[in-house]
Amino acid sequence: xxxxxxxxxxxxxxxxxxxxxxxxxxxxxxxxxxxxxxxxxxxxxxxxxxxxxxxxxxxxxxxxxxxxxxxxxxxxxxxxxxxxxxxxxxxxxxxxxxxxxxxxxxxxxxxxxxx
Length: 115
Description:
Elements lengths: L1 H22 L1 H43 L16 H31 L1
Helix pairs in contact: 1-2, 1-3, 2-3
C-alpha cells in the first residue's frame, strides 16, 4: 500500500515536471538548478551516512573481537548499501537535464515537419 502511494507520487512529480518544463521553459531553468542541487546534496548526505555507518559498525566489531579474544562470536549482520542508489541519483539528474532540453527538441521536430 505504502509503495503504491510513493510510486503514484513519483509518477505525478515526473509528469508535473515535464509539464512545467514544456510550458514554462524559463521558469524550469531556474527550478532545474535547485532540483539538481537538492539531488546532489541528497547523494552527498547519503554517502556520508553510509561511510559513517560502515565505519561505526567496523569499529564496534573490532571492539567486540578484542573483548572476546578466544571465543567464537556471533557477529550481527547488516544489509549492504544498495549499489543502485548513486545510479538512481544520476538517472534523476539525467531526466531533469532531458526536461531542460525538451522544448527545443519538440520545437525542432515541429519545424522539421513544416518544412
